[in-house]
Amino acid sequence: MTPLARSLGLIVVLAAAAWAQSAQQSPPTATVAGTVIDSVTKQPMRGVGVRARSFGAGQSNSHFASATSDAEGHFVLDAMAPGRYMIMASQQGYLGQRIAGGGSNGRFLTVAPDQHTDDLIVEMIPGANISGHIKNADGKPMARVSLEVVKYFYSGSQKELRGVAPPQFTNVDGEYRIAGVAPGKYYVRAIAPDAPAGKPPAKEQAKATAKEEATAKPEAYATTYYPNGNDVTSSSPLVVRAGQDLAGIDITLTPVRALNIDGKVLLSGSHDPAPSAEVTLANADGSSSDRHATADAKGAFTLPNIPPGDYVLVARVEPATQKIKMLFGRKPIHVDDKNITKIDVLIGSGVQVSGRIHIDDKTNADPTKIDLGKIAATLEPEGNSSVTALMPEVNGVEVKPDGSFTFSDVAEGTYSLDLSPVPAGFYLKSTGAADALETGITISQGQSPALLDLALSASAAQLTGVVLNDQMPAPDSCVVLLPAGNRRGQSRFFKRAITDASGHFTMKGVIPGDYKVLALDGIDRSSMTDLDFLEQFEDRGESVHLQEGGVQDVRLNAIPAADAAP
Question: What is the pTM of this model?
Fold first, then answer.
């Protein structure tokens, strides 16, 4: 090649590179304009921050745009690069947003080059308010009563009531107000201060005869669920809608006979007393009215003024140094109409829990190419969060190359076992007498369970499908696989996916079994993990039975965003 030819070639290359760089650096020209409104009143909202963030496959860098709505609720997002965007907005007193118009599907928006959209609607979802009065049986207002808004959450394979916000307390007039409650189904419970409801004055109590002391019946207030239930089964749930003002949620607290619990904290094995042990009486329903006592030199303790109900007695001795393990024990009790005496709570340092993973005989994969040593094992306590918060933490362990693993110092209770990451295309199943992965592992005081025998199988199922909205593909829809039975509270059985531009989705590595498949259009991603929210649409889902190694295809109709709001 002649020098002239080489020079001309270099000029062409440089010109092409300069043109490409210029094209890459050309400013984005797409704009998205719209209006922010209150989803309940439909009135425009001023001063709302609106943000757009791009996401999706093939995007090396995220693109952002932001604006603030004016007095008429209008906003403009300009200089936007092409791509798929998540639209977000925030304002005090509002819990989230959904979008409409502009080709959106409730939360996501696709922007084309040089596109100019002016009809996007951002609906802000206001929080609800719950208010009322708390009175005693004489109709007098009660101050310092704790009010909790609770709902069901899964803890392993068990359902448990938990608060969705910090408790609020009544004022001197017995009034309370709980603001910013998200749409959903809740229960409201009132918990009076620990002071007894009725008690003879100190002077009269000192002069009381033995007969009078024997016949005296101190009173206390039990946890009460709206409108007047002693437990959630005898209460009425509140269905809360966006922006709703639920006033008049009044509760009357009626005193009941208060009882005493007397017992001892003993060391497991020797049954020697455990002086200075901390004793906690936790409500079985998880409410926050815990009572506390400290064992004396003989391990004895007394918990006075306890209303009838179901409880869990927890005893602990905190370690003096890091090398010493916490001593822990628990005991469920039912308080009826008599004092409880001579109850023993055994505490110990925990036991070993061992297991082994082996390759399923039906698996054709080469065992030498599966590195079991990359799997980590953890144990998480299940059940009453008031109790699990007091339990000693179980340190996670690494699975050895031969598949064995051992946990140390596991306190009594029920645990869920998690092993991850599982190799792609595989799933774990129990092969022992008890299915530790599905029912959990129950540890008794001082007794190690049988060896956990687990198999790693390559016969995971696969679910594919398409989601339609009015017979048209529904992109960016949320598809959720809800497991049946006691699997529902265990995250490893859940699968979630977002449909692509053609409405299709694929779920791989699904554990075989029975499921319900839901497709929801335009919901927040946080709602995809809210079982209480998802279960209200269960009857609109598709039932599937996924077999080992099977591939199943489904056709789903999207549940619209408007229906997906309580």
Answer: 0.77
